[in-house]
Specification:
Layout: E1 2-3, H1 8-15, E2 19-22, E3 28-30, H2 40-47, E4 52-53, H3 58-73, E5 76-77, E6 80-81, H4 85-96, H5 100-107, H6 111-118, H7 126-136, H8 150-167, H9 171-183, H10 190-204, H11 210-220, H12 239-254, H13 258-270, H14 279-299, H15 303-319, H16 326-339, H17 344-360, H18 364-378
Antiparallel strand pairs: 1-3, 1-4, 2-3, 5-6
């Protein structure tokens, strides 16, 4: 790609130093190898705007062109150009059928400030703007990073890294990342503040209690001040809110309130198509929803329903190519078949598949646990 001289320092810092040709005026050509399924390099590339031109491959030039067109289309409505964020905010609010009071709550601003924003008399920061776009269901995963400076982008990367570690259940690393995030500038943003507060509650929890549920409810009310458990199916929930609600359900299950826990998870599932979750986050959150429901149903002896939920969890995991939990899902299905009195060959097959899937993923500890539990609880020797 052809890069302007003025962005050389940032290019070398964030994209590497693969310069293969330099010109007298300081411009240079950079060779970069990147994974197709990673968004970060693409977002960073877009952040340099017209200071960088991709020369090849042609497929990437076309992809960038399409992204640029999509960004432009966000500002067009019925053939007229919308150059003002104020116009977009007002348009989206009306299209969603929201009052100024309801929209103000979503954006964490006063009604008076929202009125000034819509009148073009007050500014709106990028996080509030992105929240507005998400209300409409507009794609925001790529272009919004253009608004961040280098220090904010570094904080954003820590925030995304924390979410990935949460998905991998790596709580030790998550704790270290939190320290970095709290030193950064984005900790003041409600979305980041909420997620960090949630993770800290989970890390500091020893045994689930009523106090834990109260603390989790407090974190979800950062974004939904009037959050009520029995209204979850009516909400358009974000990634953070879904994860927090799932944790509340897990705590309730541990405290013996299984029916209440199942109701929460089922309500989230019922409203999942209306959720405010990016495509990247769906990979983590959607399989977890059904697997959690399956475990909860199994804990109260509703094995047929648990089996159905787990089977769907496997299907969604494959759809989103998130296979990490497949071994546990297969083990869960084996247990359901066993509890339902099915023939040994049926649940034995699932136990063997669970073991070999975990082993094939390099999850040796999980594979060992599955093998030991298969013999201990079901009398099955896993070859």
């Amino acid at each position: 790609m052809l890069c302007k001289a003025e962005v050389r320092t940032q290019i070398c810092k964030y994209l590497g130093e693969g310069i293969i040709e330099a010109y007298v005026n300081g411009d240079f050509v950079l060779h970069l190898q990147v994974p197709d399924d990673e968004r970060m390099w693409l977002a960073m590339l877009l952040s340099f705007g017209d200071k960088v031109e991709v020369l090849e491959p042609e497929s990437l030039r076309i992809r960038l062109s399409e992204i640029a067109k999509n960004i432009l289309s966000l500002y067009c409505q019925r053939g007229s150009m919308k150059t003002s964020r104020a116009d977009i905010i007002k348009s989206i609010r009306k299209e969603m059928g929201l009052s100024q009071e309801e929209m103000a709550e979503q954006l964490f601003v006063s009604v008076r400030h929202l009125a000034r924003i819509e009148a073009g008399e007050a500014s709106i920061n990028v996080w509030q703007f992105i929240t507005t776009l998400e209300l409409l269901g507009s794609p925001t995963e790529d272009f919004w990073l253009l608004y961040l400076d280098s220090s904010e982008y570094a904080s954003y990367r820590d925030y995304r890294r924390l979410k990935r570690q949460l998905g991998n259940d790596d709580w030790i690393e998550a704790k270290n990342i939190i320290d970095d995030i709290e030193k950064g500038s984005l900790i003041k943003q409600p979305i980041v503040e909420q997620f960090v507060a949630y993770v800290k509650v989970i890390i500091e929890m020893t045994v689930p209690s009523a106090e834990t549920i109260e603390a989790l409810t407090k974190t979800i009310r950062i974004s939904k001040p009037r959050f009520e458990e029995d209204k979850i199916s009516e909400y358009r929930m974000s990634y953070n809110e879904i994860y927090i609600a799932l944790s509340i359900a897990e705590c309730l299950n541990t405290l013996g309130e299984q029916d209440r826990a199942i109701s929460i998870v089922q309500s989230i599932i019922n409203s999942r198509e209306n959720s405010k979750v990016s495509e990247e986050d769906k990979i983590t959150i959607f399989p977890s929803l059904y697997f959690t429901l399956s475990r909860l149903l199994r804990s109260v002896g509703r094995y047929k329903e648990a089996l159905k939920a787990c089977d769907y969890a496997v299907e969604i995991s494959r759809e989103y190519n998130n296979l990490r939990r497949i071994p546990e899902m297969l083990f869960c299905m084996a247990d359901c078949y066993h509890k339902l009195g099915e023939e040994e060959q049926i649940y034995k097959t699932h136990l063997i598949r669970a073991y070999h899937t975990a082993y094939g993923m390099g999850r040796n500890d999980a594979a060992t646990t599955i093998k030991e539990d298969a013999l201990k609880y079901y009398g099955v020797i896993v070859p």
